[in-house]
């Protein structure tokens, strides 16, 4: 991908602060550093988002996540938790269209990063929930 910034980073045409690399995966510090150690993990193969993954690519990417998370925890023992985020497509806040996973260490409630899910439990009736689950289940291949 000639214009992809993440392809240029993994090809070392653009400098990065690499934290991990193997034949399938490249992980580097996010330039924004939402919190100290904020890392991006990308597949070396250019795919835009999760919808382009096959099973092998998913295995390659998602089996490396615990390794990087543990490395962050060991490097920074004060980490109390970690957010692992994968935004897919513009509506879901993806801004670089090379699939990537954010590992955002959490140091405390005041580390200036939050995600809020409201209580939506009363929005769907049991019948609606059954219909939704059956619709999705019919498409899982």
In words, what does this structure look like?
The chain is α+β, with helices and mostly antiparallel strands and 141 residues long. The protein has one domain (5-115): HIT-like (HIT family, subunit A, 2-Layer Sandwich). The protein has helices at 5-10, 55-62, 65-75, 126-137, and strands at 18-21, 25-29, 39-43, 81-85, 101-106. It has a five-stranded antiparallel beta sheet, with helices on one face. Strand 1 (18-21) and strand 2 form a beta hairpin. The two termini are 29 Å apart. The mean pLDDT is 92.
Question: What's the short version?
Answer:
InterPro entries: HINT, Histidine_triad_CS, Histidine_triad_HIT, HIT-like, HIT-like_sf. The protein has 4 helices and 5 strands; from the N terminus they run αβββααββα.
**Could you give the distance between the termini?**
29 Å
| Main sheet: strands, sense, barrel | 5 strands, antiparallel
- Approximately what portion of the residues adopt beta-strand conformation? 15-25%
Q: Helix fraction?
A: 25-40%
Which word captures the global form? globular
CATH architecture: 2-Layer Sandwich
Key terms for this structure?
141 residues, alpha+beta, HIT family, subunit A, 5-stranded antiparallel β-sheet, 4 helices, globular, Histidine_triad_HIT, HIT-like, HIT family protein, Histidine_triad_CS
């Amino acid at each position: 991908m000639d214009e992809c910034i993440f392809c240029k980073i993994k090809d070392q045409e653009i400098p990065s602060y690499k934290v991990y690399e193997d034949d399938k995966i490249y992980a580097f510090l996010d330039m924004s550093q939402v919190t100290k150690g904020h890392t991006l993990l990308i597949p070396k193969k250019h795919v835009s988002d999760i919808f382009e993954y096959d099973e092998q690519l998913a295995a390659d990417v998602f089996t490396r996540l615990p390794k990087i998370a543990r490395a962050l925890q060991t490097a920074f023992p004060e980490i109390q938790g970690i957010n692992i985020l994968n935004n897919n497509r513009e509506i879901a806040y993806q801004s670089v269209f090379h699939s990537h996973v954010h590992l955002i260490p959490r140091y405390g409630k005041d580390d200036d990063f939050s995600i809020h899910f409201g209580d939506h439990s009363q929005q769907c009736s049991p019948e609606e929930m059954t219909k939704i689950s059956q619709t999705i289940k019919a498409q899982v291949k």
